[in-house]
Amino acid sequence: MSKQKIFIVEDEIKIAQLIRDYLEDSNFSTIIMERGDLVIQQIKKDPPDLILMDIMLPGANGMDICKEIRKFSNLPVIMITARVEEIDRLVGLELGADDYICKPFSPREVVARVKAVLRRTQPKTSYDKLVAGPIILEESTRKVTVHNNALQLTPNEFGLLKILMTNPDQVFSRNELLNKVQGYNYDGYDRTIDTHIKNLRKKISAHLSDEDMIISVYGVGYKLKASF
Prior knowledge:
Layout: E1 5-9, H1 13-25, E2 29-33, H2 39-45, E3 50-54, H3 62-69, E4 77-81, H4 86-94, E5 99-102, H5 107-121, E6 129-132, E7 135-138, E8 143-146, E9 149-150, H6 155-166, E10 172-173, H7 174-182, H8 192-205, E11 214-217, E12 221-224
């Protein structure tokens, strides 16, 4: 079985090498890139299974790179940053990043995050279809349609929709959704869920007429409408 490939895009070479050593000890293969403007070309030439990417890079900003990746790929992206302001988390995740790691960090935490993101973004071997009114979600192919119109969802949006469709009319708090989607007990900023829900609603409503499938429950969280 071939090793899963991780791109490490980090201009601080000692940090990149430390991450590389821990990932390779966990049986991943790695490629280190120190410049942001080389990333898109390399992904298209030799796609990895996941990319770990700093925000501040020479040549191109990590946020801009993530936005560009999402135009053609659902490749899992974990952002690395020393900037912990809430706005950075919101903007990064809104652009389609799957997770954040803040400096300073434990290399073991990086490996755990990589494994968790890969687990939840890889297609399952068994075929599983969920149906909620006009929405159809196929887990094995990671395909979602609304009235036969295919949606382009990020891995986090797909995970959120799957949770809500599996449990129609059940109310989930933001923390519950965040932890279920991330695949582990996540201590990040829970309002990131609001950003994902906003984007998910927008994509679904583009193919529905005056009908909101995802309901906000004031002071609690969100649920999927049980009947249509």
